[in-house]
Amino acid sequence: MTTDTAPSFTWRRVTEEDFPLLRAWLEQPHVARWWNHETSPEAVRRDFGPSARGEEPNEDLLVFLDGRPLGLVQRSRYRDYPEYREELAPLTEVPENAVSLDYLIGDPGSVGRGLGPAMIRALVERTWTDDPEAGCVIIPVVAANRASWRALEKAGLRRVAEGDLEPDNPIDDRLHYVYRVDRP
User: Fold this and answer.
1) With b meaning 16 or more CB within 10 Å and e meaning fewer, what string describes 99-109?
2) How would CATH label the architecture of 9-182?
3) Is the pTM of this model over 0.90?
4) Count of CB atoms situated within 10 Å of the CB of 171
5) Do the Cβ atoms of 61 and 13 come closer than 8 Å?
C-alpha cells in the first residue's frame, strides 16, 4: 500500500443481490485459478444462496474498503463441518472452538497492494469479538498458492503443519500448508 493510514474495512453478510458481483469476481483469472468455482448464475445461487438465506452455519461476508466492494470472506466453525475437521485433524490439532476463513480479493486493481493481509488481519480480529467462543483461526492453503500463504504470514498467522489435503482445484498438488493464530 502506498498510504500511511490503515485501510478501513467494513463487511456485511452476502445477500442474493450480491450474486452478480460474486459471479464477476469468480470469473476473474486471479480468483478463478484458486477458487475453481462454477460461475453460472445457477451455480452461484446454489453455492452462496443457503448462506445468504441463513440456512448454513457459515458466514459469507462481503468486504468493503472505504465503502467500495473489495472481496469476500467465508467464515465458519470447524465444529459445524465435522468432515472438514476430520480431514484436517491428521495434520494438526483442530480444537472444538476453531474457526476457518477463506478469502478472495475480487477487484483485480486491488491485488498486490497489501490489502489481503490487512483484510485477513481485520477479519481475524473481528472474529474474536463476533464469536467469543472462538479460540483460534486455522486456515489450510494449497502450497502452490504462495500469494495466499504469504498474506496469512503477513497477517500474523504462523505455519503449524503441512501435508496432503484434497485441493479445491484438481490441477493442484495435494500439499497444503496449515496456518493458525490463537485468540490473544
Assistant:
1) bbbbbbbbbee
2) 3-Layer(aba) Sandwich (3.40)
3) yes
4) 8
5) yes
